[in-house]
Design goal:
This protein is mainly beta. It has an 8-stranded antiparallel β-barrel with strand order 1-4-5-7-8-9-10-13.
């Protein structure tokens, strides 16, 4: 996370007595995408990302969040499939993606609805999805999942040969674990 992003996040947060940044533990965090295909369904793992999350340190509410990633960091474990995926996503033209949180609304019993904007493949769209936030001492776990239709972002349905087709609706699942930094 750059210092400029951190400064913007903190400057953009509402005036609160104890806004604290969440230091994400990459070893405990994960972002995975389940992809269904006619012949060979597969999982995609996002190995690296930047997440800048500000939390109200008193009550644990997420105040702001920005999540950035590079498409080249999405991996399936199959180099040939990864190369085809990179070509389909046009990573030379659209190398990165970003989610910016607009609001977190209560959903009851530790559940919330995150609302924000997701940008990738040159298209930005409003998205919302359920999340859970669990706190244990100074560690927060933010988890959620949602379906995304890649056609909404200008990507064509991937087809190969006559029978192979990838479903354009993918399932994104994430778990971000981090420690609250001192104010």
């Amino acid at each position: 996370m750059s210092l400029a992003v951190l400064a913007c996040l903190i400057a953009g947060t509402p005036a609160r007595a104890d806004v604290r940044m969440l230091a994400i533990d990459a070893a405990q965090s994960a972002v995975d995408i389940a992809v269904t295909a006619t012949v060979d369904s597969f999982a995609v793992h996002l190995g690296k990302f930047n997440a800048a999350i500000a939390v109200d340190g008193v009550i644990g509410n997420v105040v702001t969040a920005e999540f950035d990633f590079r498409f080249s960091d999405l991996k399936t474990g199959d180099a040939g499939r990864d190369a085809e995926m990179d070509e389909w996503e046009e990573i030379e033209r659209y190398p990165d993606g970003q989610f910016t949180l607009d609001a977190v609304e209560p959903g009851g019993a530790g559940k919330f609805v995150a609302r924000g904007r997701l940008r990738f493949h040159g298209v930005e769209r409003d998205v919302s999805f359920p999340v859970t936030v669990a706190a244990r001492r100074d560690t927060l776990t933010i988890a959620g999942s949602t379906s995304l239709d890649t056609r909404d972002y200008g990507l064509p349905v991937y087809r190969r040969f006559i029978i192979f087709r990838v479903d354009p609706v993918v399932q994104v699942k994430f778990r971000l674990v981090g420690k609250l930094l001192a104010p």
